[in-house]
Amino acid sequence: MNTLRIAGGQVLRPDATVEDADVLVDRDEGTILDIGADLDADETLDAEGCLVTPGLVNAHCHVAMTLLRGYADDKPLDAWLREDIWPAEAALTPEDVRVGAELGLVEMIKSGTTAFADMYFHVPEVAAAVDEAGLRARLGHGVVTLGKDDEDARADIDESLDVAREFDGAADGRIRTAAMPHSLTTVAEDYLREFVADAHAEDIPVHYHANETTDEVDPIVDERGERPLSYAKELGMLTADDFLAHGVHVDDAEIDLLADAGTGVVHCPASNMKLASGMAPVQKLLDAGVTVGLGTDGAASNNDLDMFDEMRDAAMLGKLAAADASAVAAGDVVRMATAGSADAINLPGGALEVGGAADLAVVDLDAPHLTPANDLVSHLAYAARGSDVRHTVCDGRVLMRDREVLTLDEDAVMARASEAVASLRERV
Ligand SMILES: N[C@@H](CCSC[C@H]1O[C@@H](n2cnc3c(=O)[nH]cnc32)[C@H](O)[C@@H]1O)C(=O)O
Ligand SMILES: [Zn+2]
C-alpha cells in the first residue's frame, strides 16, 4: 500500500467539529484510511497551523468560460447571452475550450476545489483537461434547440447523449456524466421530453438551468398555466438523480416538489447578483429539506471560480433574501459547498471520514485575516480566501503542494489562454 499523511493540522469533521489529527490516505485506492494521532506514511504533507477541510465541490460551472472573464459585464442574462456570450462561444475552437478548461482547473486547484459539474461543448477537450489536472467532475454537453432546425436540434441532443455515454467512468472513474438540456425555455418541449426519457432509460442523470430569472419563468406560466418546476416534473426531469442550477424564482409549491423528488438545487449567488437575476430563497430550501449545493457558474458571470467567495456570497445573500441575519449561517454554507454539492451532483467527496474519498484542501490559518481563531467554520465561510489554500489533494493524489500546482503548468496555461483570446477577439 502507498500512503500519504496530512500531518499536524486540525481536521474539519462532517459534524462541523474540528479536531487535532493527522489524515492517512491510501493513494492507490484514493480513500481515507484513518483520522487520528501520529500516523505513519510513505509521504507527508505538512499541515501544521492549517485546517484540513473536504475539497470544495463547485456544483455548477462552465469551466472554459474563463476565456470570457471580463469579456462582457454589467448586462442582464438574456442580453448578455445573446449579444455577447453566444456569438463569442460560436467562434471557440476545441483547442480554445481545452486551454480555457485548463485555466479554470488551475484556478480551482489553487482555491481548494476538487470536484465540479460542468455544462459546455467540445466536452472531449474538457474531459482531457480534467484527466490531466486530476480533479473529479460530472461533465455534459449543453443543448439548445431554440433557433435551430430539426436536423441541428437532433444532432445537438445526440451529441449530448453520446458524450454522456462515452465519457462516463473516464479518467480512472473520476469523470461521470449527465445529459444537459440548457434550460426549460431554450429547449423546446417535444425535444425535451424525448431527450430526458432517452437519458433516464440509460440511467443518465439530467442537469439544466431552471427558474433563474423572471423572464424565464413568466413565459412558461403564461403559455402553460403552470410553474416551471411542475412542467419539469411532468417532463420527468425532477428525479433524485437530476440536479438544476439556480432555482432563484421558486414558489412554495415548487420547493415542495424539489423536496419530495430529492432533486438537487445548485445555488449560484455571485452569478445571480451580477446578472441581477434575483435572490434564491435558500433558507426556505434548506428548511424544506431540499439538497442544496453551491456553484460559481461560469467565470464570465462571477468573475472567478473561488468557492470561498461563493460561500461568503451565499451567506450574505441568503440573509438578505430571508431578511434575517440568522439565516444561511456559516455552517450551512460550508455544508453546501462540500457535502451538499457532492450530494447534488452525486460524486464522491464532500466529507472527511474513514473509508471516504481522499479529496481535501489544506487551508493555511497563519494570516492576519484569519486571526484570532475564534471559530474555524466561521473563518471558512466569512474570512478565508482561495489563496489561503496551501495543498490540494484529490483521489489521494497531491494536485498542489505548497501552492505549486503539480499536474498542470500554471504559467504555460496562462500564456496559452491569453494567446487564444487574442486570436478569438480578432475573429469575433
Ligand atoms: N450547445 C449550446 C451551448 C450550451 S453550453 C451552456 C451554455 O450556458 C451558458 N451560460 C453560462 N451561464 C449561464 C447562466 O447563468 N444561465 C444560462 N446560461 C448560461 C454558456 O454561455 C453556454 O453557452 C449552444 O449551441 O449554444
Ligand atoms: Zn450556468
Automatic annotation (TrEMBL):
Q: What is the lineage of its organism?
A: Archaea, Methanobacteriati, Methanobacteriota, Stenosarchaea group, Halobacteria
Look up the record and name the cofactor or cofactors this protein needs: Zn(2+)
The UniProt similarity line reads: Belongs to the metallo-dependent hydrolases superfamily. MTA/SAH deaminase family.
| SUPFAM superfamilies documented for this protein | Composite domain of metallo-dependent hydrolases, Metallo-dependent hydrolases
Which UniProt keyword terms apply here?
Hydrolase, Metal-binding, Zinc
Write out the catalysed reaction. S-adenosyl-L-homocysteine + H2O + H(+) = S-inosyl-L-homocysteine + NH4(+); S-methyl-5'-thioadenosine + H2O + H(+) = S-methyl-5'-thioinosine + NH4(+)
Annotated protein name in UniProt: 5-methylthioadenosine/S-adenosylhomocysteine deaminase
The yes or no answer to whether the keyword Hydrolase is present is yes
Q: Which Gene3D superfamilies does the annotation name? A: Metal-dependent hydrolases, Urease, subunit C, domain 1
- According to the record, how does the cofactor bind? Binds 1 zinc ion per subunit.
